[in-house]
Specification:
By secondary structure, this protein is mainly alpha-helical. It is built from 52 helices and 11 strands.
Length: about 1000
């Protein structure tokens, strides 16, 4: 172990490292964090851990964060998993493209690249590597890691329980850790990570190290000098080498003593003094190299140093001979970050800033990533030179998507220092407003846009300003202000026809959000006509989207589906931004669900989810939409997995809706504590986004259920009616109609007959209207060929309960047999049974009770089953010997159909992304399922799971269920809800 500092192994206990590596090799994920001051031996320990890992057959991927790349998203993690250069590995090439900034165009407004979701590419790559065999991921200098990389590592930490992964990282203890690194540390500790703090060498170990180096025991003077190194093995080594090179050590009678005066050089000075033997020319090149970071290419260094490549290469090779640099992968690397840091710190601040500026401008003429160039410009001398302005004007659109906050800083600084007569100031200010909007700073973006509008007059670009003025308040949750800006621009500003039609189309979306359905429709139709004439696919897609939603809300669902299909075709066949397809897939899914075509609805939601995955990792809207379809179809455990995926990582959109749907499921499963928790989480955040407003009904629904479960039906009814009064019914009446029977039941149980009559009259009026006012075939039965999208059955359900008339209520039986929402179907059976029992038609009541109870059992809806049994028992109807049945909470029989399918595929060695592709669910959802499976079966790893599945003979269970066998090449599994009885 001569390559490792003396005393290192004693300080960390090598057996402990070997145990961590061994457990990872056996499929149990582990994490190791090494902390200490610079030069204390962290990198050596990482090397030692990697050596152990390779010895036990793990694939080892190593990398290190760079100080210069702290604000470049995924820069640190890409040193392990990606590449900025071409590679033969297709997946690594894809990740490399992301790092180089290719494919950023779809990133969502208001979200940094670090949050936009390219993390999924790295997470999926780790999943796939782990499926091929145990993996060690080793990352040094985490104190310099960018936030996006640290978040990826935190997410990997959460999946350690199911991956054969050893996650190893090292960081400095000083200066204090950043917030993101602290969060990573806490997250890994929560997963059982081991933290190894490397302390300075004690006096005995220092004496042993110096003796080993000099072949003689150090004297008192030399040991005093060593104390200035603070027990740091690297500094001690550098001091000894410096003294030896300067002939300042004498050895006599086995004792080594220094001839130096007591005032010794500092460790940093000692490091620099070690380089004194190099030529001034080579040192000059190394100082410039220190500005570029720990890894340097000859071409970049030559461009920044303004010297011929052969001269620079010669200096670098000399540094390699001196042990200062090493060469691998076509780059030159500082062997010790301490050496680079000493060179960098030795540069006077003005010179350092000037070199960063020159580095940025020099690299601008190379293939370097624009984000890296921007980082150098930001660290450089503030400048508004024409070269800086020209580069920002040309790359600002890319930068605002990749690194919006840094772009804002650079643009503001360039505007501050540029000449007042600079002709591109107007361009920079528009870019600044757009970058502010992209950063989520809508108010500042609006202010900047207004200032530009007040001081510049350029009709060619005025439309871009008004677009920002309209988008900013809309994204800030103020669609009313957005519409005011659109109205003003359309009536008072000289816009081109294309700009006008695009604002009109976007205005229809805004009006839809405001609930002004008639105006939204007329605006969308005008935009549609104009867009067709101009051939503008962006505006046409927005107009079709608005019209599709409107037709769906008006229960003209077949037409809505046709419009969504047409809009999708336009988006797919044109150069429209890819992210436009996501809401269109969601609209298709809701239409198909309303038509009772549940599997097709799930396919549509999954298609939108796949688009989101290609762009950003995931979009919570997709997770929520799929969860709603699964909830409707009775696959509640799958719905919960989608909800968890939507809520991770924290800070994503739609938290209120996601938590609320989880609360709804918890109440029905009689877990009131969990329901209250989710409802509390929903109440702790505000979501003024358009999607958040659209799904606000879920919050009201969850609150009503919790009130009812707590024995407060009056409060539940008031909450329900208040939601209707606040306009939720206008926006989501196509869905809220499903809740009408529940509202009538609540009102009757509270003795509020007037409220029951009001709800019934409203639903009957809506059913009678049926959206047939334009003669397009969407009458009372026009919702779909099978009648699933009309409201006649729901109206009969309400009227039958209000009049206590079982015959009227039974008129809805055929409707509910086709109805896609399993829970509401079961509630109809329950209400029918109660009404029949009151009419003394007990045999019919018992049949309906059986139907309800079987559905509740399949859903594990114990709250509903208990309520139904109690309600019918009071009326003289009992279920007899067929008692309540439910799924156990642990063991093989506790697994859902989807979990069985996941377990089977995991046992075949498939990665989470591959399992997701087979089952048509996201990687995150698969990860949630695997965690649930391991928890239910009491297992520690995927390896154990594979063993258990094999032992089960592919999982024949007491229930007679088996997970699906291996799929044929190119096939997929279809996971559907259990068959529900229709007696």
């Amino acid at each position: 172990m001569g390559d490792f500092p003396v005393g290192l192994l004693e300080r960390v206990e090598a057996a402990h490292l070997e145990r961590l590596v061994l457990e990872a090799s056996r499929g149990v994920g582990r994490a190791l964090l090494v902390e200490g001051e610079p030069g204390i031996g962290k990198s050596a320990l990482l090397d030692l851990t990697g050596m152990y890992a390779e010895r036990l057959g793990l694939r080892v991927l190593s990398g290190a964060a760079e100080e210069i790349e702290q604000r470049l998203p995924f820069a640190a993690i890409s040193t392990c998993l990606g590449s900025r250069t071409a590679t033969g590995d297709a997946h690594e090439a894809g990740v490399g493209a992301l790092i180089r900034g290719e494919g950023w165009a779809g990133a969502p407004l208001g979200v940094e690249a670090a949050d936009a979701g390219f993390a999924e590419s790295f997470l999926a790559q780790v999943d796939e590597l782990c499926a091929a065999g145990p993996l060690a991921l080793v990352l040094d200098d985490l104190h310099w890691a960018d936030q996006a990389s640290l978040r990826v590592l935190a997410e990997l930490g959460e999946s350690l329980g199911q991956l054969p992964l050893l996650l190893v990282g090292a960081y400095r203890t000083a200066p204090p850790r950043g917030q993101e690194l602290d969060r990573l540390r806490r997250a890994l500790l929560a997963q059982g990570a081991t933290v190894l703090p490397l302390e300075p060498l004690d006096d005995d170990t220092v004496r042993e190290l110096v003796t080993q180096m000099l072949g003689a025991s150090p004297g008192a003077g030399l040991l005093r000098l060593m104390k200035d190194a603070g027990g740091n093995p690297l500094y001690i080594t550098e001091l000894v080498d410096t003294l030896t090179a300067g002939d300042q050590i004498r050895i006599s009678h086995g004792t080594a003593e220094t001839t130096l005066a007591p005032d010794s050089p500092s460790p940093g000075a000692a490091v620099l003094h070690r380089l004194d033997f190099m030529s001034p020319d080579a040192l000059s090149v190394l100082r410039v190299a220190s500005v570029l970071g720990s890894a340097i290419t000859v071409e970049d260094l030559a461009a920044v140093a303004e010297r011929p490549v052969p001269d620079v290469l010669g200096a670098l090779l000399d540094a390699c001979d001196a042990g200062v640099l090493s060469e691998r992968g076509g780059r030159f690397w500082f062997r010790h970050t301490v050496v680079r840091q000493a060179l960098y710190d030795d540069l006077p601040m003005p010179l350092r800033a000037a070199l960063h500026l020159e580095a940025g401008l020099a690299l601008a003429g190379t293939s370097a990533a624009p984000e890296l160039i921007a980082e150098h410009l930001d660290l450089g001398t503030p400048s508004g030179s024409p070269r800086v302005v020209d580069w920002l004007a040309g790359h600002g659109e890319h930068l605002m998507v990749a690194v919006p906050k840094l772009t804002v800083e650079l643009l503001r600084r360039a505007l501050e220092y540029a000449d007042a007569a600079e002709p591109r100031r107007y361009r920079l200010r528009i870019l600044l407003a757009a970058a502010l909007l992209r950063s989520g700073r809508a108010a500042e973006a609006e202010d900047e846009a207004r200032q530009v509008l007040a001081h510049h007059h350029d009709r060619a670009t005025e439309g871009a300003i008004w677009w920002i003025l309209a988008r900013a308040p809309y994204l800030a949750g103020h669609p009313d202000l957005a519409w005011a800006e659109i109205e003003h621009a359309l009536s008072s500003v000289s816009l081109s026809r294309v700009e006008t039609v695009r604002l009109q189309a976007f205005g229809s979306v805004v009006l839809l959000t405001l609930g002004q359905l008639d105006r939204a429709e007329s605006t969308a139709r005008q935009a549609e006509r104009d867009a067709r004439e101009l051939g503008d696919v962006n505006a046409l897609s927005d107009a079709f989207q608005t019209l599709a939603v409107l037709h769906h809300l008006q229960r003209r669902t077949p037409e809505a589906l046709d419009l969504a299909d047409r809009a999708l075709r336009i988006a797919q066949e044109s150069d429209a931004p890819v992210d436009k397809r996501i809401p269109l897939h969601m609209i298709r899914g809701h239409c198909l669900l309303a038509l009772g075509r549940t599997q097709e609805a799930d396919d549509a939601m999954r298609a939108g989810q796949q688009v989101a995955k290609q762009l950003w990792d995931h979009v919570p809207l997709c997770d929520l939409s799929r969860a709603l379809v699964m909830f409707a179809d009775g696959r509640w455990d799958d719905a919960l997995a989608e909800i968890r995926a939507g809520l991770e990582p924290s800070g994503q959109s739609l938290p209120r809706a996601l938590h609320s749907l989880a609360a709804v499921i918890a109440v029905h499963r009689n877990d009131l504590a969990t329901a209250r928790h989710h409802l509390s989480e929903a109440g702790a955040v505000q979501d003024g986004s358009p999607d958040g407003r659209f799904y606000e009904f879920l919050v009201a629904w969850a609150g009503c259920l919790v009130d009812e479960a707590e024995g407060a039906p009056d409060r539940a009814l008031e909450r329900c009616l208040d939601s209707s009064r606040r306009g939720l019914a206008t926006v989501m009446r196509s869905v809220l109609a499903f809740f009408a029977p529940g509202a009538v039941s609540l009102a009757l149980s509270s003795g509020n007959t007037e409220a029951a009559r009001g709800v019934t009259a409203a639903i009957e009026s809506q059913a009678a209207d049926g959206g047939a006012d334009d003669g397009t075939g969407g009458g009372a039965d026009g919702g779909g060929d099978d009648g699933t999208d009309d409201l006649s059955g729901i109206a009969a359900h309400c009227r039958g309960m209000l009049d206590n008339d079982p015959d009227t209520l039974l008129e809805a039986a055929g409707y509910y047999d086709r109805f896609p929402w399993v829970l509401f179907r079961a509630r109809y059976y329950e209400d029918a049974a109660a009404t029949l029992a009151q009419a003394k038609r007990l045999s019919e009541a018992r049949v309906m009770l059986y139907r309800a109870m079987d559905v509740y059992a399949d859903l594990n809806a114990t709250w509903d089953a208990t309520r139904a049994a109690s309600r019918l028992r009071a009326l003289g109807v009992r279920r007899g010997h067929r008692g309540l049945r439910g799924r156990p909470s642990t063991g093989w029989d506790s697994l859902t159909d989807t979990e069985l399918a996941v377990a089977s595929l995991v046992a075949q060695g498939l990665s989470n992304p591959d399992v997701g592709a087979r089952l048509r669910i996201s990687r995150r959802t698969v990860q949630t399922h695997v965690s649930n499976i391991l928890s239910k079966l009491g297992l520690a790893s995927r390896v154990e799971l594979a063993t258990v599945v094999t032992a089960h003979g592919l999982a024949t269970s007491a229930r007679g269920r088996r997970p699906p066998g291996p799929a044929e090449e190119g096939s997929t599994y279809t996971v559907s809800g259990r068959g529900l009885p229709h007696r």
